[in-house]
Amino acid sequence: MQKIKILFAGESAVMTTTHIKGVDSFTHYSYSEGVRFIKPKLEEQNVEVVYMPCHDVMSKFPMTVEELKEYDCIVISDLGSNSLLFHPNVLRSQAMPNRLDVLREYVSQGGAFLMIGGYMTFAGIENKARYHDTPIEELLPVEILNYDDRVELPEGFHAESVNPDHPILKGLPSKFPMMLFYNKLVVKKSAELLLVNYEKGRNDPILVVWDFGNGRAGAFAPDCAPHGATPEFLNWSHYGEFFAKTIRWLARK
Hints:
- By secondary structure, the chain is of the alpha/beta class.
- The protein has helices at residues 35-44, 54-60, 65-68, 81-85, 99-108, 135-139, 231-234, 239-250; strands at 4-10, 12-21, 24-33, 47-52, 73-77, 112-116, 142-144, 150-157, 160-161, 179-183, 185-187, 192-197, 204-212, 215-220.
- Strand 2 and strand 3 (24-33) form a beta hairpin.
- The protein is globular and about 60 Å long.
- The model has no long low-confidence stretch (mean pLDDT 97).
């Protein structure tokens, strides 16, 4: 299996917890990386993962198409648009390249891009991810809502294949393990719809791909990590294979 190299940005969080005990309180901080679930599974599929946590994106995410071409695919998961827009120099009132434009041009020139769902992708919680009406929405095979797009299903749902012969899905079960969350998206004309949630009368896209210019882009609406990704999905024998096949197809590898 040919080795490919990706840049995976996002899936980290710094958390603040305040304990109030009567009239006294104290605060502590913790750090977590959701990438710990997907990264080793991709590496088992001969995918080299260069990982960039959320707090590094502002200063370290590539600024040019040429830098992005070092990678076969760019993956963004649970990372809002502001982290890409606000290089530290922008906060000092210095003009810098718009990295959303840079990503669109990278894909147009033959690159690959995958956005994975979460509270800080697509529209996100309280519309804070804010990818609607941006170059990222232009390159993606889906329209992004301009309001909080979360679909919370605590009872769970199962994504179903609508094109089992597609190279991404070929050989995988037609019904995926239970998940609890996804971002609601609208499929664009000429895009390929591969996975859907049909349960309880819904008809919501779960995985959509298409060609954009000379490249390819995909949108996976659920999480790749908790809470939306359940232990059933994370421990699924095809978990790493599914994401690796998706990335390889997007990268034409």
